[in-house]
Amino acid sequence: MSKRENKLDQLSALFESASKVKLLDSLQRAKGNMEQAANIYLEETEKCLEKKVPLRQTKLELFFHDTSNSETLKSIQGDCHAGSKEQSLTEASREGQIPLKITSLNEILKWPPLSASKTKAKPKRNVRPVLRLYHAHDVAERTQCTLIHDVLPKDLANSLLKVMLEESETWQRNQWWLFERMVTSSHTASFYTSTEENKTYDGEVYYNGKKTESARAFLPEMEIARRAIRDIVNEKRKGRDRHEFEIQEYWNPNVAVANCYSNSREGVGWHSDELTYLGPRPIIGSLSLGATRQFRLRQIQESDEKSSRIISITLPHNSLLIMWPPTQELWKHEVCPQNVLDHLHPIAGSKRINITFREFREEYTDEWTPKCSCGIPCVLKPVMRSGPNNGRYFYMCYAGRAREGQNCGFFEWLDVSKRQNDYERKRLNLLQKQKNKSI
Ligand SMILES: [Zn+2]
């Protein structure tokens, strides 16, 4: 296949309903640059429709800047008043906006609308309020998650909370570029790697297009909690169907992202967790300690009114929320800023500590991750939109997150089966070599 045909194929995959002639024309005018070609195509479509419908977003560079969405910005700047019925209704009405005819790359890949908050769409008549869930059986019924209360022995939960509160004094706020401005997250976070499992991951980690500070080692209390949570998750997993491409063997968390929400105003906007090092369909075990907060979920699926309802799960101290696959592919989640907390925690006060246990997979380390022309590892993303590309994964340039306007437009589909086979072959070769040496 020629380079041009390959690029045309990629564009067709992104703009499924577009005619190949138009896409080829855009590609030629952009002299083969994919990002420009997509922009030209979008601008042309925009011109055709601008008198008929308002546009949400058509600029590709914004798409490239954005791996969360405008709601991240909104959540950081504003307050969505979790728990207030009236505000919850407003939230739900924002979800139910009338779909626009225009498609941007953002919509095609099914990130949430970029400028939804600016669009004055009429709210739907049948607005559905946010659904608050407290009980494990309701969470199991309505989501792809499992909620477990009082998951750790009481003393362990309390001592873990105490050491993490101390640790959190030195955690950082994340920063990235969004809509041509630098955004800083309201909460602080840090990345930890298990010393017991360090053979699995000891490389560098890129987040928001830049190298993170070196991973910190799990504290002893974290290791104990890791083992307990690992066993509980694997036990719960026995009764569940395995998805293609998820880890088939024992789930063995080897890293954790720890977050601290100091007060009710700190939160994190709608996003799904990055797949770059986790691979497709990850399992994430999210432990909550300290102040009780609302954790919101909403399903990403176009033209499906029912699924767009926001679900808010109450996460008290010492609760575990297991996000089973394909939660990261089909749902977004957020921790919404609140005006007030229901009550303060006796140890943590208004602070919530969240430890998310994850497994970095060997076949998704930097060694296997393509680098774009910017020289940094790409980000791995799923296609969230339903249609022929649903269920596929792709790599794209991640540099725009760290440096304004710098993005090389790199795009590459991931062949998951091929990756698994290549990895398996390499692993067996290494084993054979070791065996030969020892003979
Ligand atoms: Zn790049």
What does this structure look like?
The chain is α+β, with helices and mostly antiparallel strands. The protein folds into two domains: 3-83 and 99-108, no CATH class; 84-98 and 114-434, Alpha-ketoglutarate-dependent dioxygenase AlkB-like (Jelly Rolls, Sandwich), CATH 2.60.120.590. 30% of the residues lie in helices and 21% in strands. Strands 2, 3, 4, 7, 8, 10, 13 and 15 form an eight-stranded mixed sheet that branches. The chain has a five-stranded mixed sheet with strand order 1-12-11-14-9. Strand 5 (206-207) and strand 6 form a beta hairpin. Helix 1 (3-14) packs across helix 2. Mean pLDDT is 77; it is low at 46-125. The structure holds zinc ion. One of its GO terms (biological process) is DNA alkylation repair.
Percent of residues in beta strands? 15-25%
Are there runs of 5+ residues with pLDDT below 50, and where?
46-125
The CATH level-2 architecture of the largest domain is identified as Sandwich
Q: DSSP helix count?
A: 12
Q: Mean of residue pLDDT?
A: 77
Q: Roughly how much helix do the residues carry, as a percent range?
A: 25-40%
Along the chain, the helix and strand elements come as HHHHHHHEHEHEEEEEHEEEEEEHEEEEEH
How many structural domains in the coordinates?
2
Reading off the top of the CATH hierarchy, the class of the largest domain is best stated as Mainly Beta
Q: What is the distance, rounded to the nearest whole angstrom, between the alpha carbons of the first and last residues?
A: 46 Å
The major β-sheet equals: 8 strands, mixed
The kinds of small molecule bound in this structure are:
zinc ion
Helix and strand composition category: alpha+beta
Radius of gyration, in Å, reads 22 Å
